[in-house]
Design a protein that fits this description.
Number of strands: 0
Strand content: under 5%
Number of helices: 6
Shape: elongated
């Protein structure tokens, strides 16, 4: 028996919601605690290391700084190719309430997963579940 158009639309909506929420949670999991490392801060670090390398008279320290610069350049490439956090948050906000209701996911479960309270509020997910 073929699926109705309504059923197909519901499946597509569920996949869209799941994808948006999963992308946000994966990004949330990949972040380190503390101040975020941005492309701007990494570029500044690379520039500072270049200056220090040129001024360094100890060849061993210069090699260590070169390695630090290489690692910062790798981090910069990753940061520049990372998804926009604002877009991921917007996708979460747009889809989380319907997804939570359909899957029975509580405010507390989202908080334990690391989702900020302010983002849950934007999504319309409250402690009371209403």
């Amino acid at each position: 028996m073929p699926m109705s158009e309504e059923h197909k639309a519901a499946l597509a909506r569920g996949r869209r919601e799941s994808r948006a929420i999963k992308q946000y949670l994966e990004n949330l999991k990949s972040r380190r605690p503390g101040r975020p490392v941005t492309p701007t801060t990494l570029k500044k670090r690379i520039e500072d290391l270049e200056v220090k390398i040129k001024a360094e008279s100890d060849p061993l320290k210069a090699v260590e700084m070169r390695q630090s610069r290489i690692e910062a350049e790798v981090s910069l490439a990753k940061a520049e190719n990372a998804p926009d956090v604002a877009d991921l948050e917007a996708g979460f906000v747009k889809n989380a309430k319907a997804y939570s209701k359909r899957k029975g996911i509580s405010y507390a479960a989202w908080r334990e997963a690391g989702v900020p309270a302010a983002l849950l509020k934007q999504a319309g997910i409250t402690r009371s579940g209403k």
